[in-house]
Amino acid sequence: xxxxxxxxxxxxxxxxxxxxxxxxxxxxRRQLEHAVGHVDIDPNVIERLKHPTKVQEVTVPIExxxxxxxxxxxxxxxxxxxxxxxxxxxxxxxxxxxxxCVGLSMWMTWKCAVxxxxxxxxxxxxxxxxxxxxxxxxxxxxRRFTEEIRGVIGPMKDIPAPDxxxxxxxxxxxxxxxxxxxxxxxxxxxxxxxxVIGGSKGREEAPGRSVAIITRxxxxxxxxxxxxxxxxxxxxxxxxxxxxxxxxxxxxxxxAVSDVNGAIYDPSGLETHDIPTHNEQPEAVTEQDVPHVLxxxxxxxxxxxxxxxxxxxxxxxxxxxxxxxxxxxxEGANGPTTxxxxxxxxxxxxxxxxxxxxxxxxxxxxxxxxxQDINRRAWSxxxxxxxxxxxxxxxxxxxxxxxxxxxxxxxxxAYIVALLRIxxxxxxxxxxx
Length: 433
Ligand code: NAD
Known about the structure:
Elements: H1 24-36, H2 43-49, E1 54-63, E2 69-80, E3 86-93, H3 98-114, E4 120-127, H4 135-148, E5 158-162, H5 168-182, H6 206-221, E6 230-234, H7 238-249, E7 253-259, E8 262-265, E9 292-294, H8 296-300, E10 306-309, E11 328-330, H9 339-347, E12 352-353, H10 355-358, H11 361-375, H12 381-406, H13 410-429
Parallel strand pairs: 3-4, 3-5, 6-7, 6-10, 10-11, 11-12
Antiparallel strand pairs: 1-2, 2-4, 7-8, 8-9
Helix pairs in contact: 1-3, 1-13, 3-13, 4-5, 6-7, 6-11, 6-12, 11-12, 12-13
């Protein structure tokens, strides 16, 4: 494979280490500043993009099953809506903070723009451990939170989606609560709903499918035939399993997958359709009958053509980036590469295809869901997959052009595509009033 530009990654001029963890908003601002160095964009527009347009902080009291009242804090951050309504996930997690929501909302702005979707970024959540709530308590929490943020969401304002700790059922409750208060059924207020109330076919598989499509395009770019490619995939949840199975169907050899307990490795190739996913049977990966069981750290250092970290964030760091032996990395998870880890990989010439492109199939099919809701017409699975294929290839082509034209990393190339689109829209619309 040909080498990657040595431009530093997720990094500005200052030295970055993993010793002091950056907050999501710090990382998002750093990435913005780094990408800006490669393009000529009005600094006034960049200044606006460093800040959210609005952050709603709300108190969410609910009655627990034992009759006591508990009070939680929730947020909804809006970053930028110059290209359309805000779009982004809603998470229930004990570590949700205002800053995290702001940082993640900025990433959603770039992700939507790199895919050329008519949305801006948002993110929200409640600081709560959903595992400590009964289903009834979760429903009350979701409905009360929906009421608290009702003024800032809506199909033409801000469209939440599932994220950590939330799922199709949470979105169904949110849609119902919103619709009841508005006096009409409004499916377009959320995406990731069950198909029976306006959810899209293919939504669940979409992030993994997009990871597979982008891996295929990247292999082609580096003249690596799919039939000869070996791939190690960290994780075997929704993203990893869907990506692994598709790539195997397309002829690649998936040599390793993992879960939180460890990895399995077979140099002659795993039968990924026979391995239960995290959803089908949690933590069953290492129970499979295969030649080698490895640690997750060992999986990340395997000598393969493609490494796909598709489980959790911050796994490629300054501690292990020097030991990565893969020729190409495709980010399936959100934020699997730290700033310092990314810099080492860039210096070593190992291309890293960024998350905001590779796993953007999720938000892209969310966009399709929103279109289906507005038009009150469901698409077939075949249409969803065909349109996703075409959106992903278009986005890849745009990022490729920026990568080759500016001689930058793939991450910077994706940011350049996104930023130019957002800046152009800001310049065309101007500043109100
Ligand atoms: P999931 O819950 O379905 O699966 C997660 C997988 O990671 C499981 O196999 C689990 O065992 C494994 N895992 C958990 N902790 C681990 C650890 N410390 N080390 C190694 N493996 C570990 O999750 P998912 O939906 O597949 O999401 C994976 C990543 O992709 C996350 O970063 C998520 O934010 C991102 N992502 C998900 C979507 C989506 O819609 N599902 C969309 C875009 C990005």
